[in-house]
Design brief:
Blueprint: H1 4-18, H2 53-56, H3 60-72, H4 74-95, E1 101-111, E2 118-133, H5 138-204, H6 210-245, H7 277-283, H8 285-306, E3 311-322, E4 334-343, H9 351-417, H10 423-457
Antiparallel strand pairs: 1-2, 2-3, 3-4
Helix pairs in contact: 3-5, 4-5, 5-6, 5-8, 5-10, 6-10, 8-9, 9-10
């Protein structure tokens, strides 16, 4: 019959095994305002994170590129493998809470302490070696920390996918703008070569001076240099996109448009609701990753606290033993041993306290990193909103300016051909037109890339 003292000891052991020294986790308050700058009106609709990338990037050519990148990109592949590694580490931490059962066979030959004769000893059986009974949840705390690390790597994979999709879309629009600028520069070069031809003809006939001819020639060479630079830029941007894809870029990935307008030939992205800054805590994987790392650091404090308490371990074996190998399995050869051990920290030169201080500092660092991730996300959304509010008007104004400069160039060219205007007026009109057209294309590219950035910073792109 079990005594009361035994029952009390078992109850105390069960209580201690169930206790945890991990500090109660509380999510830190978000160190950002409750609304975004300007408090823009939010259109009705689903949150960005719930909009699959296939529904946001509707152009089939861009969709094909994103699928290729998701299948081939090496950085994303590393993120997936990091998840597998973290899962294995969690399983290792969880397994430490359970005893490891091993098959044991031992053979010993040594002199007897009685008469000095050599004797044999054989043993075979099952054994548990140094199993720590987790009374103070040290191993449980380490398991919780490993679990949070595993969940953090999963969030990191989602964040990597968001970044990859955004980078592919941004690179694609950059390449389309490069093609427009390349075509624009080629047309400008043709125009300036024609001006050189016309000025040379007038110079040969004594109508204009050599100064006019050299000015026209200089403008043409400037356009030729810009064309070479734009070709190089286009090749470099294609190489950058191919690296993201993990495969060569196929010609079918770009719209086939004669002349300018490649950016306008793409399918438009839908309008996105923004929501409130608190939504970012739920939708942004990088913020959730930072919070899981904070939970892991918090759990490590529990493990560091448990190091101050006694550590109880158990070693046990059960099987058969005999002085003769042939007698191992005979009747009466049963043998067993149980060796519990209690280790109580008395003096460690401050090692356990330093471990606890380190764990607390790690937790404070994780809090600061979590808060910084929220602040960075708030700033990214605010920047994207500022772009959405102003880039549209900037594109409209630059296109109007380019149209006006084109009309001015036509009039200056007509006046020059009729001997009314000087070549300097024509060259100035050419330069102004080229600059205005470049600015219009580049700003339209920024507008499209800003739409990509807004989708990305709102947490869109990780749900398939």
């Amino acid at each position: 019959m079990i005594s009361r003292h035994t029952l009390g000891a078992l109850a105390a052991s069960a209580f201690l095994a169930g206790c945890s020294l991990i500090p109660t986790y509380e999510r830190p308050a978000a160190p950002v305002p409750t609304t975004f700058p300007g408090d823009p009106a939010q259109p009705a609709g689903a949150a960005a994170a719930t909009v699959a990338w296939q529904d946001y990037f509707t152009d089939p050519r861009l969709q094909a590129l994103i699928r290729t990148a998701l299948a081939n990109n090496r950085d994303l592949r590393v993120s997936v493998l990091n998840i597998e590694q973290a899962r294995a580490q969690f399983q290792i931490s969880r397994a430490a809470q359970y005893p490891a059962l091993n098959g044991i066979f031992s053979a010993t030959r040594q002199p007897s302490v009685v008469d000095g004769r050599l004797g044999n000893s054989f043993q075979v059986g099952l054994g548990i070696s140094s199993w720590e009974i987790d009374f103070f949840n040290r191993l449980g705390s380490l398991k919780e920390a490993a679990l949070a690390q595993y969940l953090a790597t999963e969030e990191a994979r989602k964040a990597a996918q968001i970044s990859l999709i955004g980078a592919v879309a941004t690179g694609w629009y950059t390449l389309l703008a490069d093609d427009e600028l390349l075509e624009l520069t080629r047309e400008t070069l043709v125009t300036r070569d024609e001006s050189v031809r016309l000025t040379k003809l007038r110079f040969d006939n004594g109508v204009s001076s050599e100064l006019d001819f050299q000015a026209a020639n200089s403008a043409a060479e400037t356009a030729r240099a810009a064309y070479a630079q734009q070709q190089r830029q286009r090749l470099q941007d294609e190489n950058a996109l191919a690296l993201l894809l993990g495969a060569p870029l196929q010609p079918a990935a770009l719209p086939t448009v004669n002349g300018l307008g490649r950016l306008e030939a793409t399918q438009a992205m839908p309008e996105l609701p923004v929501g409130l800054p608190s939504d970012l805590l739920i939708e942004r994987p990088d913020i959730r990753q930072a919070e899981q790392l904070l939970r892991s650091a918090n759990a490590n404090i529990g493990a560091a606290r448990a190091a101050f308490f006694p550590r109880i371990s158990l070693t046990a074996t059960a099987g058969t033993a005999s002085n003769e190998l042939s007698g191992l399995f005979k009747s009466g050869s049963t043998a067993f041993s149980i060796a519990p051990q209690l280790v109580l920290p008395i003096f460690d030169a401050g090692r356990n306290q330093a471990g606890l201080d380190s764990a607390r500092a790690e937790r404070d660092i994780a809090v600061a990193q979590y808060e910084k991730s929220i602040q960075s996300a708030f700033r990214e959304v605010a920047d994207a909103l500022a772009g959405r509010a102003t880039l549209g008007e900037q594109v409209r104004a630059l296109r109007a300016q380019a149209a006006a400069e084109e009309q001015r160039f036509k009039l200056s060219d007509l006046r020059y051909r009729n001997g009314i205007a000087s070549s300097l007026d024509l060259l100035d009109a050419q330069r102004s037109l080229f600059s205005a057209q470049q600015a219009a294309v580049q700003t339209r590219m920024l507008q499209l890339q800003n739409q990509v950035a807004l989708y990305k910073v709102l947490g869109g792109g990780w749900k398939d």
